[in-house]
Amino acid sequence: MRLIAKEKKPTIVSTGIATEEELFKICEIFKEEKNPDLIFLKCTSAYPTAIEDMNLKGIVSLKEKFNVEVGLSDHSFGFLAPVMAVALGARVIEKHFMLDKNIESEDSKFSLDFDEFKAMVGAIRQAESALGDGKLDLDEKALKNRVFARSLYASKDIKKGEMFSEENVKSVRPSFGLHPKFYQELLGKKASKDIEFGDALKQGDFQ
Fold first, then answer.
1. Contact 170, 151 (CB under 8 A)
2. Which residues of the chain have pLDDT under 70?
3. How many whole angstroms separate alpha carbon 5 and alpha carbon 78?
4. Which of 75, 122, 177, 205 has minimal CB crowding within 10 Å?
């Protein structure tokens, strides 16, 4: 392993049946040899691997515990696991590939052919796109859709001096009026002017 680390090239290590102690030792060697390009692939050594045995959260644990790039060495049927792995932070996917699945071999049952592999890559790209950037700010599309949020409207004609009540104020779409958070504050206050049925309520409409 030290000879490999000395090459200063990106190195992929499948965890397989390795212990934490052994993985820590590998990390130590790569640090000593000043090679930062180490990638651990979460691997379950069962062929094929049942979905319930994959422990994909181990991908997150590898990333947090060893501070390296992570991926998945997958021996399960289909490509659900690789897509989920990407959502959990995997940067590398190893998946068995066969040109002709009619050829019997030890791994033919859980290998992908050309069309299946293409579909897997497409699903992974969709997953990457769906993950977004993690920011909680509203994007441009969401801001445009704010018009469909609820706000406070007069559900009946309201005369100047009349009190706002559950009978004459409703929270409906679109969002051109007061935010619904002002509903309780508004109840019991008097209208500062005549308000027609269907009008969006504004800050200056009550006193």
1. no
2. none
3. 34
4. 122
